[in-house]
Fold each of these.
Amino acid sequence: MTALAALGLGLVIGAFLGALGGGGAILTVPALVYLLGQSARDATTSSLIIVGAAALTGMIGYARSGHVRWRLGVMFGIAGTAAAYLGTALNRQVNQHYLLIAFAVVMGLAATGMLLRARNRKPEPATASVGAARFAGPAESSDAERTVAARAASPVGEAPARSREFGQGSRWTAGAKILVAGLGVGFMTGFFGVGGGFVIVPVLVLLFDLSMPVAAATSLLIIAINSAASLVARAGTAHFHWAIIVPFTIAAMAASLAGKTIAGRLPDRLLTRIFAAMLIAIGLFVAVQNIAQIS
């Protein structure tokens, strides 16, 4: 029965992860704790395997469509590796109820940022093609416009490519953004035991001006790197419940491919609102549950 429950939850979480590039781990940790009976620390370890494997699988579909920003994703992930080790060390020292309350607070902050971004975005241009409008959000169009302008202003093609990859700003500004954001996300990955998609996607949207589909695709690469680093940091001290992890992971990997198809059929702004609503709902549930147990 536990294996069947893990299989069903994996299908749901994999679909969210593939469609939104984040949220899988947010669902995974509460599901492992409240539905499958794991402790918070065991759940955070199990989720790293589940979400990391599902992220790699989901990234395949996005890579074929050319939506993964490879250089940005690799640099972002590497920047967070050392911080992931620090977060893992702190995870072992914190009471699990306080850990989950902090987890809920971060979810709320991320959801707020995403909702503000969705409200302030301009509508898609009417001249966009049907295929582009279906998968490329407003920021994607603005990236293209900036690229054309930059190419006209400079005979060197490197600057426009960097603009597309890292958003507006100089190389040093982009590097500083990647370093700071990567360290923060890496720490959260190690501390909360999640892939970090619920933070990575808002960061990529807000700081690098990527559309939701491109941010989702790139976040999957970052999630895989951060998850691997955090798992290495936990090696030797973690407990792995393979009877739960294996079916959960297989189902999540399969469903993450379907999630990419779902994302291609929904508007960018709707995806943003779905993501934010999911963060708020689960964050409230986790906070109420753990505050009640502390009181």
Amino acid sequence: MQPEKELQLRLRFYKTSTKSVEDIIKTCDALKDEVAPDFHIKYMENHIWLNIGARRREKHSPHLHVELDKMEDGNTAVNGLFGPDPVLWTMFMFLHFIVAGVFIIFLMIAYSKWTLEQNFGFDIVIMTLMIGCWAALYYIARTMRRKGIPQMHELEDLMDRILS
């Protein structure tokens, strides 16, 4: 996987493993203590969460959510999703909703002033600032993802170790 060339912020991948879901979970359980200081492995049913350990975690550290599905031919479909820390992702979504809400409110105010033939220049300025804020949030997210790419590769190697 080459996250440097992907446009989306939350990278996804799909793989197939010859191991069963139960064998993959057993491998996770066995590997959990071995990688404990550097990585944190959690699993529940057919979901596995791989995180960077607390002593190496940064604000840009990614996590990996892996979903395992049984296939008819006995193999296992592995669906992975890289993402930022859930708390950080929630904060970014909250900020996006605030920016979008302010934009929509000032859009409605500007439209009302336009229909009443009043001056709506200030409202256009605020809407432009909200577009700038959205662009800044996107740039910050891309920068944080770029900083987390080495740890993303580490998580992918750990996942490959679990699947092999």
Amino acid sequence: MKKGLIFSLLLLLVGQLFFAQELALVKEKSKIGYIDKSGNYVIQPSFETAKSFSDGLAAVKEGQVWGFIGKDGKIVIQPSFSNIKDFHNGICIVEKDKTWFYINKKGEKLTMPYSDKLYDFNEGLAFMKGGNKIGAFDTDGKVVIRAEYEIIKPFQNGFARASKDSRWGIIDAKGNVIVPFEYGDIGEYADGTTWAKKGSLYGVIDGKEFKIMDEVDRIWDFEGQPMTYAKKKGKIGFVDKTGNWVIEPKFDKARAFNQNFAPVCVNSKWGYIDPTGNYVIEPTYNDAEVFSNDHLAPVKGKDWGFIDKTGKLVIPMDYDISKSFGFTEKNKGFNDGVSRVKKSGKWGFIDTSGNLLGNKWFYNVELFQN
């Protein structure tokens, strides 16, 4: 009895791991398939038109209609839709018979609040629009934010920028006002902090207190970091959450800190500084991007390669790279151990040692998705 129970649990665990793994869409000649991070096909290239996995399902087109497959390559929702979007929070927007509506993962039509336009779910909410006003409802169809805003930006970590009466503030996923609607512009809200603009003045909001920063031309989002970069009189430095300069503005360009390194540019050359503002990697590159959590950063000479935190070039400058945008912006470079790269007109993935996944190039590849 115990052996049978253990075997069943093992099968369940294996199944969960299989369906949790990330797969990447690849195009080989005229057919699309999906590979895992070993570079091997999990789903053989057999589709002429398909999309990346999202929320465990991928849209594929058969003839003139769309349906969805699971990670075993089998049809989960029969092709019957003339147009589709992606699944988010278990719900997808589809079109059939010239009508757009929501479906669940069984392909069943859902009844949701009326909206002039249908929006994808994000962090458990979808926007609804009536006339010129925006609100939001949850996956059960319950309205949680009344349609009283002119604009609501996508939620990030439970908070969203919103505009009301031509002024910007911050709301949470229940519609509570976190930062009052007093600003001409406002940044993403993270860890109780954001930047804002009131009249012609920029400043930092820590909690609800707005601290004006003199002569500042622009402030970038904190993105969960203890400091961000800001521009003053044409030069860029770094400020903390209280609005004080930690690193005086002296750079021509800069990007965000991660792994305690930030790319900065002086006289058209890029290098990296530490949180005290001292160079840890001298500015010698034509371009440079943020260090990823894989402890590698893309740097450019003629083409792109990757350095480690000692400044050593560990992957040669032989590639083109790109950034992907969604509800969450992915790093330009490595994400969870792999980077999408292009060489000699073909696309593929390399690992952190510079090895080509599956030792194979493709006509196109998309980022690994779950």
Amino acid sequence: MKFIPLLILFLIINFGSLAIGNWFMGDGATSNWYTNLNKAPWTPPGWVFGAAWTLIMICFSIYLSYLFKDYQSPIIIGVFILQVILNVSWNYLFFNQHLVLPALIVITLLTLVIFYFFFTFRMDAINSWRYLLLPYMIWLCIATSLNLYVLLKN
């Protein structure tokens, strides 16, 4: 498959996943539960989350387009599907159900999946494109620390 159709496909899937995750959040970041949490001092302002996820999903979609253009395997497809499921389910567990420990487990697994993409799929044709995963990796480390802080301090 060619790059542009793949890019469009992954942009739709990734931003669609964000939309579904946002829908599963319910009141999310504006809920009484969340606003009254003892949050980490390094919690960014609300607008940063939208900006970060927009950048992350654009970079991730470009990376996936290059990966899938040259390499299609059941493993790569399965890891991608797992990433989508984990990404969407974290919102539901944390914001909607207030299940902080299961959410921490999910976001930790999601972090491991993205690191798996970075360290496993380093073929010559994709090697330099894997650095597009860095914003996702950094953000997940921050988000995991925020989730852990909420678990320990509330």
